Amino acid sequence: MPKPSPSQLQSIRAQRHTWRASQDAKMRGPLSPLARIDYQHIPIGEHTLSTSSHDPIHLSPELLSGFSGQLVVISQLGSVRFVSTQPILHNDRPQTEAILHKGDTLHIGQTRLLLSGSISDPALAVYSDTAPAKAAYSGLHYYHDSDDFVVTAKLIRTSPHPVKLLASRGEPQELTSIGDLHFSLSGDCILEAYLETLDGDTLFLIFRDQTSGIPGGSYGVGRFLLAKLNADDTTVLDFHQAWNPLCAYSPYFHCPMPSRKNYLAVAITAGEKSYSDH
């Protein structure tokens, strides 16, 4: 496959700079993965927020600082809503009652609750404004940039089909595979490619390489990479935009792990390094 042209490389470098700034902003934001401190499933029924860990929805007293009311979460088949005796911030707007949709947040005291999970198994991800890991954040860590790790790849398609991958916690995750990406990087390489969204043209890649898990190297579980697929089924892989799954920052994430097929025999000294090594 032909290498990206000088003009393409210049555009890729600019896009990479923007992407890294966006990644850093996420790490510093209110829903930073470093701020996620718990993940609580919501059983069917009516549940009052409490300070007892025996209850389905609970927070420690310090996380409820500044909230003196009562919050009730009602979960029915395919629906979750809340009722509060005092206004709380629902998606940054004060409300006492509303239906919750996936991605909605409730800001209570020193805590944000994010509705997550699936329709059949809703959950609340708990984020603390005062999480020590977030307070200690000083930036992500990357290998030095080199154009050697920007390559053109060709997709050899198969019929779209579901693939179940083991996850960092909980049940396996199902992705849609559409074929294999072939490229050259110190030898011939192949990565099974998944669709980021069923109706989109962005590929989602999960891989391990010879830097995974070594001291000063990349995250041991593997890394993720997105790539825009062209009309001729080619794409440019900028491995400098490989990033760590969110489970690298908190154990309360459910991240797919690469299959053995996506273990690369080369050392990709590009992209994000393991966060915990720094």
Share in helix: under 10%
Distance between the termini: 36 Å
Q: What is the H-and-E element order?
A: HEEEEEEEEHEEEEEE
Domains counted in the coordinates: how many? 2
- What is the overall pLDDT average? 95
Into which percentage range does the β-strand content fall?
Answer: 35-45%
Shape: elongated
Number of strands: 14
Task: Briefly note the structural class of the backbone.
Answer: mainly beta
Low-confidence stretches: none
Give me the Rg, rounded: 21 Å
Largest sheet descriptor: 8 strands, antiparallel
What is the count of DSSP helices, taking H or I runs of 4+ residues? Answer: 2
Description:
With 278 residues, the protein is mainly β. The chain has 2 domains: 162 residues, no CATH class; 103 residues, Tumour Suppressor Smad4, CATH 2.60.200.20. The protein is built from 2 helices and 14 strands. The strands form 2 sheets. Strands 1, 2, 3, 4, 5, 6, 7 and 8 form an 8-stranded antiparallel β-sheet that branches. The protein has a 6-stranded antiparallel β-sheet with strand order 13-12-11-10-9-14. A hairpin with a 2-residue loop joins strand 6 and strand 7. The longest helix is centred in the first third of the chain and has 23 residues.
